[in-house]
Amino acid sequence: MPITRRRFVTSLAAGVATAPLAHAQHAGHDAKKGADLIPHHDSPYSHLFDPNIKDLPAAAAELRFTASSAPAAAQQGRWFTRANLPLPRSEMAWATVCRGKMHVVGGYGLQRVDRNYHHVYDPKTNRWENAAAIPFGANHIGIATMDDRFIYAIGGFFEQNRAPHSQNFVWDANGNEWRRIAPLSRPRGAIAVEVLNGRVHAIAGRDSRSIDWHEVYDPKTDRWENAAPMPNQRDHIGHCVWEGRIHCIGGRLDTFHFNTGIHHVYDPKTDRWSERAPLPTPRSGHGVGIIGGRLYAVGGEGTRRVFGQNESYDFKADRWESHAPMMTPRHGLGAVAIGDTLYVAGGGPIVGGSIQSSIHEAFVLG
Q: Is residue 170 part of a domain?
């Protein structure tokens, strides 16, 4: 399919595409001054609407689901705890890795759905710190890292999983500051965002419903262009890059009542999509990371279910296996692979967005 180049610049972005933006703040949270001002929260859980609720409801245990239809892997692996997030969060940008650290941006937290928090985890010290807060607080922001220096933040929602916007930003690790870049052609959130060959791919997501749009950003020209749309409409997708192709796994059509396990792969050389073996447990809001040359899909949500499944994909054999399930099933979480470890931080421990967690657990095969 031929690609048509288009330029999307609004009055909001005009004239400021390369100018650094002031660091946004919340009370007690000045990211520029360091980690000592991270808000303190004495419980691993918080309620979106009632600050007095700090524990999980009894029904949470009934929602946890960990059974997998995939064959059990010979090497099950193990989970262990890591330092919790500074405060309970969910529905943030999934997470990304920059210079060996995990970055978690935006999302729900402390009775708001438009937080601008930018927390950074260092696995070497097992500690969290602040980085510059994103200038435009939102939830379900798509993020990805380029050249181990720049983090791109694409789209998101103003309100609870709705009211999308088209604003985009890039964070520079060298200066710890954000600047605005050209907006998306149309507002959307819960986008699968990946960097491939020096360009940023924004795939699918949702406006008022799930969509199949695929736009590609070129940092050299500050322009977006269209690429082949995903073969079906989806949002809340798990995704990764492997050997020059983008894998999009699972997700939902409009709502988690219509989850799918479909697994599509995009090849930029041909601008075409193909299909691979589906995710054994259809789900959405799950995390994905690659360790030991295999893709791992963890967590997610569905109808009356919070998934703890941990299923891995063999790229060469086109086959899935199941591993030790999560200690604490969650969805809308931050998940990244650093070295041979998969880190999973935050997320919702019950269906929907009413409760956030600061739980942080990690998985290794050995």
A: yes
Cβ contacts of residue 211 below 8 Å, gap of 6+?
188, 204, 205, 233, 235
Going by C-alpha positions, the residue among 302, 362, 293 that lies closest to residue 334 is 362
DSSP string for 137-175? --BS-EEEEETTTEEEEEEEEEETTEEEEEEEEEEETTT
For position 185, which CATH number holds? Answer: 2.120.10.80
**Which residues pair with residue 145 across a beta bridge?**
151
Q: Which residues contact 74 (CB under 8 A, 6 or more apart)?
A: none
- Measured between its terminal Cα atoms, the distance across the chain in Å is 44
Q: Which amino acid is present at 339?
A: G
Q: Is residue 34 part of a domain?
A: no
Instruction: Write down the pTM of the prediction.
Output: 0.91
- Say how far apart CA 182 and CA 13 lie, in whole Å: 6
In the chain, the number of structural domains is 1
The contacts of residue 22 (CB under 8 Å, 6+ apart) are 135
23 is a domain residue: no
Written as one letter, the residue type at 298 is V
**Residue labelled with tokens 């983090």:** 151
- Give the Cα separation of 246 and 204 in Å (integer): 13
Nearest to 289 by CA among 52, 138, 96: 96
The amino acid that residue 286 corresponds to is H
pLDDT tens-digit profile, the chain (366 residues) = 333 333 333 333 333 333 334 333 343 444 443 333 456 678 999 999 999 999 999 989 999 999 999 999 999 999 999 999 999 999 998 899 999 999 999 999 999 999 999 999 999 999 999 999 999 999 999 999 999 999 999 999 999 999 999 999 999 999 999 999 999 999 999 999 999 999 999 999 999 999 999 999 999 999 999 999 999 999 999 999 999 999 999 999 999 999 999 999 999 999 999 999 999 999 999 999 999 999 999 999 999 999 999 999 999 999 999 999 999 999 999 999 999 999 999 999 999 999 999 999 999 998
Q: Contact 28/182 with Cβ under 8 angstroms? A: no
